[in-house]
Amino acid sequence: MSLDRREFLKIGAAGIVIGAFPGIAFASNELIPRKGQRVVIVGGGFGGATAAKYLRMWSDNKIEVVLVERNPVFISCPMSNTVLGGTRTISDLTQNYDTLKSKYGINLVQGEVTAIDPEKKTVMLANGHLGYDRLILSPGVDFMYDKIEGLNARVTDESIPHAWKAGAQTTMLRKQLEDMPDGGTFVMSIPAAPYRCPPGPYERACQVAAYFKTSKPKSKVIILDANPDITSKKGLFMAAWKDLYPGMVEYRNSSAVVKVDAATKTAKTEVEDIKAGVLNIIPPMKAGAVASLAGVVGADGRWCAVDFLSYESKVHKNIHVIGDSVSAALPKSGHMATTQAKICAAAVIELLQGNQPDQSPSLANTCYSMVSNTEAIHVANVFRFNAEKQAMVAADGGGVSSARSEMEGKFAGYWLKNIMSDVLL
Ligand SMILES: Cc1cc2nc3c(=O)[nH]c(=O)nc-3n(C[C@H](O)[C@H](O)[C@H](O)COP(=O)(O)OP(=O)(O)OC[C@H]3O[C@@H](n4cnc5c(N)ncnc54)[C@H](O)[C@@H]3O)c2cc1C
Question: What is the rounded distance in angstroms from the CA atom of residue 320 to the CA atom of residue 328?
Fold first, then answer.
């Protein structure tokens, strides 16, 4: 059964009865009556949507799946830097959830999860609650604005977009680049690792430079990187900046931004103040806030420790965490989130039947970066479960492209098409 908009509004109109569980205000109404074993998934991005689809497919539709997502549509972060470069628009990266509902029978609830009770196995939305047998969280990342004086969610929405969640901020950043006079400076910052998509910021610098090269050739790109060095595909990015955009891209390592002045578009590091024509601060990141609501964030206050056989939280039984929120020496990527989702879905099906999950999972990661309008580079690795270390460890082989090429640029487009189909169709 799927909850359509009319039913959704009807339930909402029924009102909220507070006080079902001590400490947490829970509405008394179950949003969707339960029929059998149920998995609730929070977050319909790369990880969550994939987990939903594969849980239904691999359980022969026996497990009821409810996917809760705040946004009405899926927007891909991968390739969103090309919106800044001008070769794609946000609508090229946007897809609806219709097939997940119609073909796989997933119950999609559009809304915000505001509380989770791990004891009662219940998640809370504004207009009711959902009980679960197992809960999967794939909430992506949230931003640690308190680490940069002068920055907050409102400032990023209004004038200094991070554009690190694809959507309105990506379009706003593109518009700011279009409005900037030739000869201006695009200043972008990169937070200390770990952060979502290690090569993404360097790809962004390439895409902005590609736009400047054709439309604003006197303009400059300055990268303020909090890391001591380029964190991914270093030689390939440096070659792209030197060969394709000579004199245009300036890279400064160990340059964490500590303060911004939104009015003057100035970024401040420990050693200098830099005034920008367009300012793009990518703040430090942590697990999506819903992980804190579930109490599954680890002692570092940022990421969630999991058992890599099932992605079950090390803190609470029956709650699994996948994707960017996971604490691991694994790249935080869409590709990684989808493969984790499949391992998690297979494990949840076994666990619900009283069986053990696969004891030797492996997963792959590939990440393309568009370094110009047509050329790309990639990194690819396989990771296998190491029982002694209780961790996913990189297998031999893998690595990065030998050189950028137009062929890889085409592969990057096919990769996007394939992964969007795998997640949503
Ligand atoms: C510019 C850029 C380029 C990138 N390029 C690549 C690439 O080329 N290849 C690649 O593999 N990866 C890339 N990535 C990384 C990729 O986007 C992420 O790693 C991936 O999205 C992580 O998946 P996830 O499921 O953990 O989170 P997401 O895909 O962000 O999904 C999280 C979802 O949870 C929802 N949510 C969160 N909290 C709640 C709540 N309380 N209630 C309801 N819903 C909620 C959010 O709305 C969101 O839809 C890129 C990222 C960026 C920013």
Answer: 14
Residue 155 CA to its chain's centroid (Å): 21
Q: What angle do CA 237, 243, 245 make, to 5 degrees?
A: 85
As a three-state string, the secondary structure of 66-89 is EEEECCCCEECCCCCHHHHHCCCC
Contact partners, residue 79, CB within 8 Å, separation at least 6: 88, 93, 370, 412, 416
Give the length of the chain: 425
SS3 call for 399: strand
Residue 164 Cβ contacting ligand 1 at under 6 Å: yes
pTM of whole model > 0.90? Answer: yes
The C-alpha atoms of residue 100 and residue 90 are separated, in whole angstroms, by: 21
Which residue minimizes the CA distance to atom 16 of ligand 1?
334
Could you tell me where the DSSP H helices lie in 255-329? 289-293
The protein residue whose alpha carbon is closest to atom 8 in ligand 1 is 78
Residue 367 CA, closest ligand 1 atom number = 9
Closest CA to 41 of 67, 60, 59: 67
Ligand 1 contacts CB of residue 288 (under 6 A): yes
d(CA 53, CA 425) in angstroms, rounded, equals 9
What does each of the 425 residues of the chain score in pLDDT, given as a tens digit? 333 433 333 333 333 333 333 344 455 699 999 989 999 999 999 999 999 999 999 999 999 999 999 999 999 999 999 999 999 999 999 999 999 999 999 999 999 999 999 999 999 999 999 999 999 999 999 999 999 999 999 999 999 999 999 999 999 999 999 999 999 999 999 999 999 999 999 999 999 999 999 999 999 999 999 999 999 999 999 999 999 999 999 999 999 999 999 999 999 999 999 999 999 999 999 999 999 999 999 999 999 999 999 999 999 999 999 999 999 999 999 999 999 999 999 999 999 999 999 999 999 999 999 999 999 999 999 999 999 999 999 999 999 999 999 999 999 999 999 999 999 99
CA torsion 250-254-259-261 (nearest 10°) is 0
Q: For ligand 1, atom 34, name the residue with the nearest CA.
A: 43
